[in-house]
Amino acid sequence: MANIAGKLGWKVVTLVFAVPISMVVRKLIEKAWVKARPNDPPRDPASPGTTWLDALAWAAVSGIGVAAGRVLASRGAATAWRGLTGTEPPGSETQAEAAAAARS
Predict the structure, then answer these.
(1) In this structure, are residues 22 and 73 in contact, taking their beta carbons and an 8 Å threshold?
(2) 48 burial class (0-12, 13-18, 19+ CB within 10 angstroms)?
(3) Helix (H, G, I), strand (E, B) or coil at 93
(4) What one-character DSSP code corresponds to residue 68?
(5) Which of 31, 75, 92, 100 is the most buried (most CB within 10 A)?
């Protein structure tokens, strides 16, 4: 039962970090796009007015932004979890555990 509560708590902590970070990252990506390009980001890459270059560039920029946001959210949530509980987040392994598993 404690394990289920821990997993649920971990999901809540992760969500608390993921939502605001994803909103901030999206806004930053859009602002960077508008600064670099004179037009708005292509919301619909299949739109007839969207060039291949714009569609591919937006895919690359937004993909990098989403990946960076996920890293920020997961690392922030893990740090907060450790601070709140004094334990590693459910499902994660420490570097020592990973090294021990690699040796065996």
Answers:
(1) yes
(2) exposed
(3) coil
(4) H
(5) 92
Kindly provide the b/e burial profile for residues 8-41, where b requires at least 16 CB atoms within 10 angstroms of the residue's own CB.
eebeebbeebbeebbeebeeebbeebeeeeeeeb
Give the tens place of pLDDT for each residue, 36-86: 888 888 888 888 888 899 999 999 999 999 999 999 999 999 999 999 888
Q: Give the pLDDT of residue 63.
A: 94
Give the count of domains, the chain.
1
DSSP state of 91: T
* Cα separation, 85 vs 70, whole angstroms: 22
3-state secondary structure of 65: helix
Residue 102 lies in a domain: no
User: Which range of residues forms the domain containing residue 48?
Assistant: 2-90
What is the reported pTM? Answer: 0.74
